[in-house]
Amino acid sequence: MNVQIxxxxxxxxxxxxxxxxSILAQTYQDWNLLIRDDGSSDGTMSVIxxxxxxxxxxxxxxxxENVGVISSFELLLKSxxxxxxxxxxxxxxxxxxxxxxLYSCMLDEERNFPRKxxxxxxxxxxxxxxLNIISNSFWEYSNINIAQHDFNFLxxxxxxxxxxxxxxxxxVNCSLPFLPETRMHDAWIALKVLKNGGxxxxxSQPTIMYRQHANNVVGAIEQKNVFKEKIVQIQSVxxxxxxxxxxxxxxxxxxxxxYLFYKIRTILSL
Length: 270
Fold this sequence. Notes:
With 270 residues, this protein is α/β, with parallel strands linked by helices. It contains ten helices and eleven strands. The chain has helices spanning 13-24, 44-54, 69-79, 98-112, 138-141, 151-156, 169-175, 185-195, 226-251, 256-269, and strands at residues 3-9, 31-37, 58-60, 84-88, 93-94, 118-122, 125-127, 133-135, 165-168, 199-203, 208-211. The strands form two sheets. The protein has a seven-stranded mixed beta sheet with strand order 3-2-1-4-9-6-10, with helices on both faces. It has a four-stranded mixed beta sheet with strand order 5-11-7-8. α2 (44-54) links the parallel β2 (31-37) and β3. It is globular.
């Protein structure tokens, strides 16, 4: 077994079955799915147990407490055993050749860059809750410029989506442990891969249907509260950048002036 899929669940019964069905339908079948539930209170565990009873390739990592998505994926990484790992979100749907495409790309990268931490990832189809296509490219939809793919730009705007990436064992080794400053597992792993002399390969072919939930719609703001809302937004932006800098400082990104320089360059390029 060369490929292991890591899935962290939390109250995901509504869409989990569709995800698991799409994994079972992959053209590449030599995989193992390792699941950790982060303390669900709905029917998620019943769905998981049902699929475990049907397919021996699906296993459940024992867990009882809620530790949050970052720590949950860290525990899955520490429990993983395969040379190549994929990450999985509970509400997406994988396109049939996802594993085949990423695995083939990874093997090509290992031939070109032996003994290096490697990460390969793809674009995504953006879909609504009913899987109707919103955009054929998540990168275009989110103004992500893959041409700006070096360590400096990655530090100010992450372009690697965890549910669309595969990493090799050397990437695992250089990424663990996650520090308290880690903001999300995908950004942390991508930065650590590049910081440790590794390579990232970006594929423009989407491999996943990236489901957007209907309840993410932003409501209208009452006019008398506009000024207050703008103040809140400014505070939020400042806090976001403060947290991002704390993570980058732990990785060894460089000075805060370097961070601000690449942040401004990224904003101007949008």
